[in-house]
Amino acid sequence: xxxxxxxxxxxxxxxxLEAVINNTTDVAVAxxxxxxxxxxxxxxxxxxQDAYRVDHTPNDRTIWHLISQIAQEAFLAGDYRSTKAHNxxxxxxxxxxxxxxxxxxxLKTNLQCSVRARQWHEVLLTATELLSPSYPCSxxxxxxxxxxxxxxxxxxxxxxxxEVNVPTINPxxxxxxxxx
Length: 180
Description:
Layout: H1 10-21, H2 27-33, H3 38-55, H4 61-77, H5 80-97, H6 100-117, H7 120-130, H8 139-157, H9 171-179
């Protein structure tokens, strides 16, 4: 059972407590809503990956899909280091297979992880790659990548790398409409 972070989810806690007090929801449901399921999902995906690897080669596309799912769930859980590590495993395979849509999702996620971890060199490399004509993205997304690059370069030139203010986006939400 994962503990609830009251500072992070104060609004959720308030809504759930009001629902319980007003008897509009079951206590068990309220408790379940307070549990962070991401860690359990990541654990189950790792178990599935290990079980699948027993009978299959490491270059199997199903393994790549499981690794991508682990990366997405880690991103939702706020574990950006794990997200980036898992995406870095599948990115070369997606590049080689020329799966531009899946590669774009991984790169967008890595970009946001790098922004949040303040890894400016990685931000520049990833944003530059996302500007490639091979990757499906809208003009607004291209504008965001160019602004991100300009912001990081401007801050580096002024010697103020610490106070780079790059807005973050949710790459999972921004990318899902491209695949449907």
